[in-house]
Write a structure and sequence with these properties.
- The chain is an alpha/beta fold and 566 residues long.
- It folds into 3 domains: 3-113, 2-Layer Sandwich (Beta-Lactamase); 129-292, Alpha-Beta Plaits (2-Layer Sandwich), CATH 3.30.70.270; 302-559, TIM Barrel (Alpha-Beta Barrel).
- Helices cover 42% and strands 24% of the residues.
- The protein has 21 helices and 22 strands.
- Strands 13-14-16-17-18-19-20-21 form an 8-stranded mixed beta barrel, surrounded by 4 helices. It has a 5-stranded antiparallel sheet with strand order 2-1-5-4-3, with helices on both faces.
Length: 566
Amino acid sequence: MDEKYRRAVDAAAIFSETDLDGRITYVNDLFCKVSGYSREELVGADHKILSSGLHPPEFFTSLWRTIALGQVWKGEICNRAKDGTLYWVDSTMVPLLDDSTGRVMRYVSIRFDVSENRQLLHSLQWRVGHDVLTGLPNRAFLSDLLNQALAFSRQEDIPLAVCMLDLDGFKAVNDGYGHACGDLLLVEVASRLRSIVRGEDVVARLAGDEFVLILRYVRDVQELRAALHRVLSAISTPYSIQGKEINVFASIGVTLFPADNDDADTLLRHADQAMYVAKQGGRNRFHLFDVSRDREVKATHQTVELVRHALNAGELCLHFQPKVNMRTGSVVGFEALLRWQHPQRGLVGPNEFLPLVEETDLIVDIGEWVMNQVMTQLQQWQVSGQGWPISVNIAARHFQRADFVERLKAMLARYPQVAPQFLDLEIVESVAIENIEHVSDCLQACQALGVQFSLGDFGTGHASLSYLKRLCTQTIKIDRVFVADILQDQNDLALAQALIGLARAFGRKVVAEGLETREHGEVLMALGCDVAQGYFIAQPMPAQEILRWVASFSAPLEWQAQEVAL
């Protein structure tokens, strides 16, 4: 190689040359620095001196066949440094040919160290499957673990217990001592649960103060009851958090396989229904699901009927939370959020009633009512000369209906004045990956009608990142769990940066959820995310307050001073 070109390559990359037998004939300083070997140790040595042992023999057979034929080989290789540590390099191996004979004379390799990227990806993949606060498997990873446990139990004919655990008194801790204290309590609960279950059992956190236990090798109901009493005792033992003595208890719902011989999602739902009955009976107790339709089924049925009545009686309403371009201070859209104006309880949030009906067809009726309300609002704005896109959360049962696209098309036809692109349908990542083929096809069909799509809770589902190219949504919403601690935690900051970079690399718009402070906004903009929603900007509000709020909203001057991220 010409000396001036070699100097240029030496300055930028890990560079080496080998002869036709694979013996090293040249290495640059960066090669020595990364590998830990001196130039004297490397030159003349077989290239296998760097072998990590992680690649199968056929990997290198294919590599050498390619370059021996005079072709360029590209790929990632794991090498082992002199001190035994492993490092990954992105390699391009080029055969140099004799001009007169066309034969390969030697090989040059240009490498770039990608170990840090690999570590970040590994951390991100772990984060996708685990709860950040407690380190326990999250909802998506739990699904895999439960399916694996069920498959084994069916094969070996071994009973299995699925337990849904909810803390009694946790809300009072959050309200009385603050969310930081509540988080520390959850960490301690997770630690206690891990300490009393066996190694083959599973402890997972769904959300909030809800945990799931998978107890394997449960021989009979008597053994199960003994195990659950140990759990209740461990949870109810007083806690010392930030110098305060705190008391909470647990309600546990349990279903036992194979007496309850159903799929993983149904078993979790049965355990949840049983937990609801345990709560009704008082704190610090468990309830075993009765496959022959125990009274928890009646309780769920009553709840569904109450929500159905609320829908028919006009008690449901929508509030809207704005999405703002922090850099320009402009409002770029709203998210429609469901509320129940209960005659006795006042305004009730969706988490208190939607989970109880999301596995019934009532969730479809509610979803279509919400979309019609949104289209009506969009039409009213258009008449008054205003207009912002509105996003709507779509439940899994609703979106996966075979006639979803046709019903959406019919609804759009009833509002000819509203451009379809103002309707933004949001599906969460966990729903999207449950049936990737159907979801991908449905997305394309809906987008052909002009409707926009957002992928919510991004980064929290147990999905391959390659699914992103198959889920052609216009927008990706970064979940609040990746935003909350970016000011204090460098790992959270790095993960947020990775997620934003990944979304932008796929050409998606990015929206950050859960913006709590001005400083969070500054960091997000520096990372390349300009659009956000959260309580710092505004809480969800009724439609009649929107125009007044928009007219009065002004972004902090510190946001406007931010430079554009490259």
